[in-house]
């Protein structure tokens, strides 16, 4: 490199010497007398050059034009379709953004919940990650721990920081830095086909007359039995264990039935392998055989069970929220009213609900201009006086900000806001969670298929998950 620099310097020096010699040769071509006379061409050029130099010195500097920046935004179907078209709202959002920031071109690519995660993994592995992503903490925090994201602290004002609960910031930060800008939320819970219970005259078995709608495991069992006895064409309740998608529904379901936690308070070890949770898993395996819970859950994915619910063939769905309720509305294949319920608990105590949390992150693609432009897009989506509220409603979610409430005229949203009191820290922020979740469904399958008792399955999960937590903590400490 040094030799290359010396060659370039020598080339520049030789070029300058050549230019000077040529200039001298040109001046020597005139006579001595003519060289200094006012009418001489060389003299005239000198005067003109002096005047031009003076003019340039007094001239106002022209403002620098902002260079256009091009960024790529990959988005899961976060927003409800407009006119049945997925991605149409995002296009409207970008058009409004460009009216304010015409110097930023946003390339939108819609990805699906099925293939999107794998597509992101491939993009990251091949250094072709998008600039912006709207996602949830499960993936975003894992990327942050791998140093793939740009920190966002410089765009979080003190007002915003103080208006959002600490529980949401804990899911958005790593090592004291903010890597996800939290936007929308809703507690994950259950949903029930209220219409089925109205038809069989068993609406009184649901806790809908209680302001907080809390209920017990025994009350839930009675409701399931009523559906089995009086509506034989409807499956009482759902469950699934085929893949990782929707794992928040299965872990919260079993944790609440067993009055347990998935991980302990500081996320340093598994807590769900308690005797009560193991008994709940044993009940689930038996209920599946008796067709009180959907049969064949070991080979069903979250999407399969969701489809059964939307077809009106399932009385209870275990993976729901106000967001999913809004997204599912145009997908229903049967006419029925779906309402939200918290997970039942063994003793009727307050449930522990994990929050859905949606937010935006920026991949650090070693381009400061793109990072800055991406921050403008995030700020517009989250905080624009007009489009911030529009976008929240289009997600079907609640605002993470305490000061923004009452977005919807709907009793289920009112209940969802009330149910925020039951929100607990999700395990997704635990060290090694990306690996922990891979052990969960195989153990559930073992229990459902009768290959292990509930306690054996949960202890097997705990052994592998605790090892993953310990390794992740050791790695982070290095």
Automatic annotation (TrEMBL):
<keyword id="KW-0762">Sugar transport</keyword>
<dbReference type="Pfam" id="PF01547">
    <property type="entry name" value="SBP_bac_1"/>
</dbReference>
<keyword id="KW-0472">Membrane</keyword>
<keyword id="KW-0564">Palmitate</keyword>
<dbReference type="InterPro" id="IPR006059">
    <property type="entry name" value="SBP"/>
</dbReference>
<keyword id="KW-0732">Signal</keyword>
<keyword id="KW-0449">Lipoprotein</keyword>
<feature type="region of interest" description="Disordered">
    <location>
        <begin position="31"/>
        <end position="69"/>
    </location>
</feature>
<keyword id="KW-0813">Transport</keyword>
<dbReference type="InterPro" id="IPR050490">
    <property type="entry name" value="Bact_solute-bd_prot1"/>
</dbReference>
<keyword id="KW-1003">Cell membrane</keyword>
<feature type="compositionally biased region" description="Basic and acidic residues">
    <location>
        <begin position="57"/>
        <end position="67"/>
    </location>
</feature>
<protein>
    <submittedName>
        <fullName>Multiple sugar transport system substrate-binding protein</fullName>
    </submittedName>
</protein>
<feature type="compositionally biased region" description="Low complexity">
    <location>
        <begin position="40"/>
        <end position="56"/>
    </location>
</feature>
<feature type="signal peptide">
    <location>
        <begin position="1"/>
        <end position="22"/>
    </location>
</feature>
